[in-house]
Amino acid sequence: MKKNKLYIGAVFVLLSIASCKPSLDEYTPSAGAVDFSNYVAIGNSLTAGYADGGLYLEGQKVAYPNLIAEQLKQVGGGEFKSPFFSEAQANGSGYITLTGLVNGQPVTAQVTDKLAYRSASPKLLTKYTEPINNLGVPGMRMDMAFAEGIGSPAGNMYFERLLPDADVMKTYFTYSTTQKHTFFSFALGNNDALGWATNGGVQDGPTSTLTSTALFTSLLNNYVTALTAGKQKGVLATIPDVTATPYFTTVTRTALLAAVNATNPPQPVKDIYITTKSGPRAATDKDYFVLPFSSTGLLGKPNGAQIPYGLHPLNPVEDKYVLDVNETATVVERINEYNAAIKAAAASKGLAVADVHEFLNNVKGGVRINGLAVSAKYITGNAFSLDGIHLTPIGNALMANIFINAINSTYNTKIPLVDVAQYRGVKLPDTVAPTK
Asked: Phi, psi at residue 101, to the nearest 5°?
């Protein structure tokens, strides 16, 4: 999205501020009239610290609410507890690591040791039922937050992990609004659009449903009403544009054609054919191939009739691997509607808004912070982890500062910002040089 020069300049100023820790000479930290003594964070995988395709201890520790809570300690914030995995089970659900580059392409491996599963079928994680402040649950959606049974063994294993056996039918809404909080951050609703988008605009079960705006708005207002019933203050986060993430921008039509033509086919390949809801057609640069497609090995593979996959309209790339231009327009419009509802709900209660949507769109093309490149590029962009959706430690530090800036601006508080320079991007193997 194009911005005028003045706006781009403002973004660089914001990023410069986000990258530096203010000195006490600039101002004395102050809570103003806000009680931060019991801060709780409500949300999904981003809130929980999910990264690299999994939830594991290192990612949990640098989840943006934990970074915010550390800064809040300087203005009266209390202890902030998270459901950390133990050191013995530090790799949690498992995750992927970058092991090297082959012909410029990343090679990843799945971490399989020190996992935290107590059951393989169904997959269930080691329980953690002590009181916590970081209530983030990977996979949680706005619609599912109000449904009973999501925390049961047949539901979401990350939520099931947090509930005593007697409470597995408790809804996430009830669980997250009865924590006796004095301040809250709220970042829920991303998966109500993202699940549909990452499945190529194909609805295949409840996690890939595109929630209606009317239902989203109704449930959001119920949430905000409950969270502010005691006049508590808080901050709501907007939902990012899916096209601002490497999951949708890394595997391009141009890259796929180059890979196919590098195999020296009998005739140069000029088109990749995709399935759309109106029939097969040649892909354009406005269609987004999802990141996992690059590792399927399907492109060019012949079917029973010897028609190569994706290279002929009679054997096009399946819809689930492509968010085409019309599907992109649908999900972008829906996210914009969600965000309008979020801003209206915040305004109705005088709450702060952390505009994550605007921020990530601004850094999509790339900026530099303290000499470090930050963008939406896969691996080298530093902000996004190896799954192309969730954040690196640097990304979490930037996210924390979006929230802190919003809180300071709305409530006239003086919460120090996180020093982004203290955190890493994608962890590179020794043979790969970092981007500077």
From this structure: -125, 135
Q: Which of 275, 255, 141, 272 is nearest to 200 (CA)?
A: 275
Q: Quick count: other Cβ atoms within 10 Å of Cβ 11? A: 16
Are 374 and 401 contacting, i.e. CB atoms less than 8 angstroms apart? no
Q: Considering only CA atoms, which of 203, 148, 201 is closest in space to residue 171?
A: 148
pLDDT digits (tens, 9 = 90+) for 201-222: 999 999 999 999 999 999 999 9
Phi-psi region of 231 (alpha: psi -120 to 50; beta: other; left: phi over 0): left
Q: Measured between alpha carbons, how far is 171 from 146 in angstroms, rounded to an integer?
A: 6
Write down the pLDDT at residue 373. Answer: 78
Paired tokens of 127: 């329980």
How far from 81 is each of 60, 159, 211, 361, CA to CA, in Å?
A: 11, 16, 31, 31
d(CA 91, CA 116): 7
Q: How far apart are CA 286 and CA 307, in angstroms?
A: 25
Cα-based distances in Å from 154 to 192, 194, 250, 371: 20, 22, 34, 47
Predicted pLDDT of residue 104: 67
Alpha-carbon Rg for the chain, nearest whole angstrom, is 22
**What does the pLDDT look like over 2-20, one tens digit per residue?**
333 333 333 333 444 344 5
Reported pTM: 0.91
How many CB atoms neighbour CB 152 within 10 A? 17
Strands 281-282 and 288-289: unpaired
